[in-house]
Each structure stands twice: as C-alpha cells, then as structure tokens.
Amino acid sequence: xxxxxxxxxxxxxxxxxxxxxxxITVHKELELEFDLGNLLASDRNPPTGLRHAGPTQEAELxxxxxxxxxxxxxxxxxxxxxxxxxxxxxxxxxxxxRLPREKPVPRPRPLTRWQQFARLKGIRPKKKTNLVWDEGSxxxxxxxxxxxxxxxxxxxxxxxxxxxxxxxxxxxxxxxAKKERVAKNELNRLRNxxxxxxxxxxxxxxxxxxGHQSKEELGRAVQVxxxxxxxxxxxxxxxxxxxxxxxxxxxxxxxxxxxDFAAEKNSQLExxxxxxxxxxxxxxxxxxxxxxxxxxxxxxxxxRKMSQKGKRxxxxxxxxGKRxxxxxxxxGKRxxxxxxxxGKRxxxLGGxxxxxxxxxxGKRxxxxHQGGKRRK
Amino acid sequence: xxxxxxxxxxxxxxxxKKPYGVLYKKKNITRPFEDQTSLEFxxxxxxxxxxxFGSHNKKRPNNLVIGxxxxxHVLDMIEVGIEKFVSLKDIKNSKCPEGTKPMLIxxxxxxxxxxxxxxxxxxxxxxxxxxxxxxxxxxxxxxxxHFTALNGKIYFRSxxxxxxxxxxxxxxxxxxxMGPSLDLVLRRTHxxxxxxxxxxxxxxxxxxxxxxxxxxxxxxxTTYGRIHMQKQDLSKLQTRKMKGLKKRPAxxxxxxxxxxxxxxxxx
Lengths: 376, 267
Fold this sequence. Notes:
Chain A: It comes from Delphinapterus leucas (Beluga whale). The complex is a heterodimer of chains A (376) and B (267). Chain A contains eight helices and six strands; from the N terminus they run αββαββαββααααα.
C-alpha cells in the first residue's frame, strides 16, 4: 500500500515537472547544433512547414524562429553564471566555429640576447621556490615583492666598506645603483623590442658627452656634427690634421661617356666574344663559395636541431662553437684570396676561368677565423 | 569592421554594424567581381576585413556583395540579390540598443549541402557575430538574427526577444519582429582557393586546443582512458571463491581437534 502511494507521488511529481517544462520544451526531429561562444545555433531540420510560399509565410517563419530561439536560450541558461554588480552574467565557452583569420599568423619573434646566449650555452631556467626562509623575522617570506625575505631597502645600518670614502652616503649609493640597474634593464628591453620589430633606431652612441669616450665614438660624433649643418657639411672646412672621412662620396661610379676609345673597344669585343662562345661562363670561385656557404648553413641548422633534441632528452648540448674540418672544397678560394683573383667581379664578364688552377688544394686560409667573420 | 560602398539600402547594414562599421557613401563605380584592387585599397585604408558592396543596374537589380579579406586580399565574395526588403524604419516598434551582440540561428539543411552555402554561412557568422566576449548578461540577450534557407532563397529576419515567465528558471521566449528583413537570392560567388582558405584558417600554436593526455578516441566514438597502476601484490589478489572447496564446519572441527592433540603431544 505504501509502495503504491510512493509511486503515485513520484508520478505526480513527474507530471508537475513536465507541465512546468511544457512551456519551454520544443520538439525537433534533429537536435540543433550549438556554438554558445558565438551565440550560434544551427538547425538541420528541413523546413517542411514553409515549403509552400504563401501569405502566412511570415508567421510560420516567426514560429520557426521562436522554436529555435527557445532551444538556444535553454542552452544558454544552463551555463554557469556569476553575479556581477546585480546582474546575472553567464560565462560563455570558447567559440567552436572555426573562422578564417583576418591577418596572417604573426611571425615568431627573434630571440633576445639572453635567449641566444642561453641557447648557446645550454642554460635552462632553474625552478625556484616561491617562499624563502627569512632569518630576521623567523618566517617564510616571498622571494621578491611586498615583504620579501631579504629586503635591502629596509636596512637601517650599512657598514662603510674599507676602501670607500667615509663621507659618502651609502644609502644614496644603494638607491642610485638600483636606479641604474632598472634603467639598464629597460634599455635592454627596448633594444630587444627594436630588434624584434626590426626598427632602425638612430644610434646615439657617441652623442652624450661623458668624460670617457673612445676614439671611434668621438670620431663618429665629429662626423655627425659636421654633417648636421644646413648644407649637409659641404662647405665645412676640415681641421689641419683631420683625415677625410671613409665611405663618403659617390656610391656608384660610371665610366665617362667617351675617353679611352681603345679600352671601350676592347671591352665591347670581349662582351661579343663571350656572347658568341658556346661554353657557359662559370665563375668557379663564386660558385664554390656559394656552395660552401649553403653547406655551412645546412650544418648550422642541423646542429641547432640536434642541440634542441639533446636539450629535450636531457640537457646535453650539441656542438655549439667551432667546427672542425667541414666539407671539402672543390677548387677555387675564399674571398680573402690573392688579389689577382679578387678585384672586380662582374658576373662572368671578366671570363676569369679558374680551370687552370684545380691543383691547388682547397685549403681555407685562416679558416676558423674567416668562418667566424662570415657568420655575422 | 565593415565598410559599405554605394549601397541603396545602406541603412540596414550600417545600422546593424554600428559602431564597428565605416560607411563610404561616395558612388564608386567598381565591379568587385572583375577588379578587386579598389576593394583592397579601401580595406587597407580603413583596416577592415569585412565588406559589403551594394549596386543596382538593369542586369543585376538590387545587388549586394558580401565579402571578407585575408591580409588585405579578397578571400571570399558572395553576391546576393535582394528581393524583398523591409527596413528598420518601416517596422514601428522599439528597437534594441546599438551594438548588442546578436544571437544567430541558421535553419534549413541547405546550409550544409553545397560548398557555396557553407561558405555563405561562415561569412554571415563572421559578419554578424560581433566582438567575442567571455561573459554575457543573460537579461541583455535581446537580438536574434534568423536565417532560413528554403527553395533557393535565404530569408533573413531579425527579432527582438521578449522573456516571459515560465514555471521554471528558463524563461519562455516570445519574438517580436523588429529589425530589417531581407529575402536574398544567391547569385555569383568568388570563393577562395583551397590552399588560401587553409592558410587563412591556420591557428598559431598558442591558440590550438591542448591535447588531453591518456585519453584517446575510437572511430566508433568510444573514449578510452589509460590509468597507470603501481605494482600489485598478487598474493593479496581477490579471486573467485570456489564454494565447493570451502571447508565444512564438521571438517573444520576435526582439524581443530587434530591440532589440539598435536600440541598436547608436544607439551
């Protein structure tokens, strides 16, 4: 008997619930797909009720919209809510619809100076504890920040070190040192940022007259000062012992229109000869240099990958610094070769075939040193 | 985020997208489907990636081109013709505040059948969804945009939401037609090539969803989890109890007696 009444109660409760929910339930054949992050709902059911275009279309469209909106609202009301300043706010999930981006993915930033150094040396960040034991106060305090463990600024007594001036204010000295450190950090940060965005900031290296400036800095400052006149330094006299600046003057030099007729004739005939010859003009030196450079680049990339893998596996660092040997060079020489090979290289014009000198071993002149230079 | 050029019915688009839209009213004679350079120029100028271009001529009356850009180059462009248009002003009732984030509903199976329709759906979502927010005030959900694809036409209706009391926490919805309504017909499309689309969908590593470890999914939809256990002591393993081998009380008594006798003997 009691069992029956319990059943009856349950049934009644169910019926009540159903009645309550009747107002907000909507029956659909296919469930809707929701993307609550975008407040989006997609109804896959074919709209059969609207097939016949007629005057009642608006009302039918509205009924369909009402049903779909009801379902969406039901979903939204299920979300976890917060109370923010007397308003009930629902926390939306991440939008799931994938939409194309507006702008391309940002390129990876270049590494900062510290990151490059750490990579080279294989330094990894040490995991530090949040709290440090402070002897003075006898409790665990944070490593840095408010009420930190070893606070320099709170000291009321600073001993004057043996070699310092007794009249010097040690407290002021400490404050000054801190300011300098902060400024240096800021400068480095801005420099890293400029490097990341490849901004060409005007280098004001020698422009601040401190007492200690190197000869080069002073030279640069003198040059900049000379050029910063209204006529860009054209009518500026030089001091008696001042040397002419390097690198100024025209960047391109053209042959005069007419002058040395013999030379002109020779160069034109040479050009014709090259154009007529069937053999392609290969500047072996340049080709081999290019090849060697490519190989070096590949090796460097491989080394970097190895060191990355090594780091992942257990902190072992791959070869980072010098390399020994290297790919054998074919013939030809490096840039710092004998001046007869150097000089002007205009494509294949000079026709400087090095086929006559394969016997010379491909020794690198000052190999390591040059390699270092090239890597810049 | 959108700019509209020479639109006859510019009111509806502009009002919908305020305050994120830029309206260019000057009548520029460009043909988006032939020459895209002017569109790209405008997009660069105003730093917008979504655009809408309206035009009207005898061949294509009441034309509207909706499009989006990737890296200031045209990604997708879809041309629709407007058959019926009822503007905000024509429907006389109270409107919702400008800039509310609308709810979007797409009805009809057409939206998944053809590639054109799928792109159109994605384009409309992109266009109308507004800024991405993490929280939304439940009472502030007032605006619904409903797109129905039927018989080759797309019916775009906007409704204002009225929350009525129902027996439980979730309110009952009543709709009131508020905003602009359009009947659109799909005309031409210029969709991005597959690889350009793939490139535009590329997500940077930071935004990719993190993979959960020790959880894998079957093709049938079964989820498998992996638990790592410590080494078990097999002697303490609970095995099946063979009831037949259990000692009966009489036998146990006999054993006890034997043990007792053995002990007495020892002593």
